[in-house]
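2024-03-11 09:14:02 DEBUG pipeline.ingest accepted 1 chain
2024-03-11 09:14:02 DEBUG pipeline.ingest length=101
2024-03-11 09:14:03 DEBUG pipeline.predict start
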Amino acid sequence: MNDTPQPATGGTAAEHYTGQVLAGPGGAMTDEVGVITGDLTLTTSLEDDGLAHSRIQYTDADEWYTLTGSPQKPPASGLRALHEQTLKAVRTGGAAEAPRT
């Protein structure tokens, strides 16, 4: 599974990364539907509000969900680092949430 962050194209986000990840046991926690598991796609974007938004979906599905703990102030280490930390958290599982910055 490709979990290397890739800058996304299009959209209104100033900076945006997308990666695929296999959720670890216990999956990832979303605000809308609770825990999701399996093959997932994660996006991390810096939006016009100045916050980092993490959204997740079942790979190739139409619906996107807010990863619990998002949005948040981006860390000093940058959006890419936050995206990589979030991929790692989802890969670990345990009802993963957006890492605290």
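2024-03-11 09:14:41 DEBUG pipeline.report Confidence is low (pLDDT under 50) at residues 1-11.
2024-03-11 09:14:41 DEBUG pipeline.predict end
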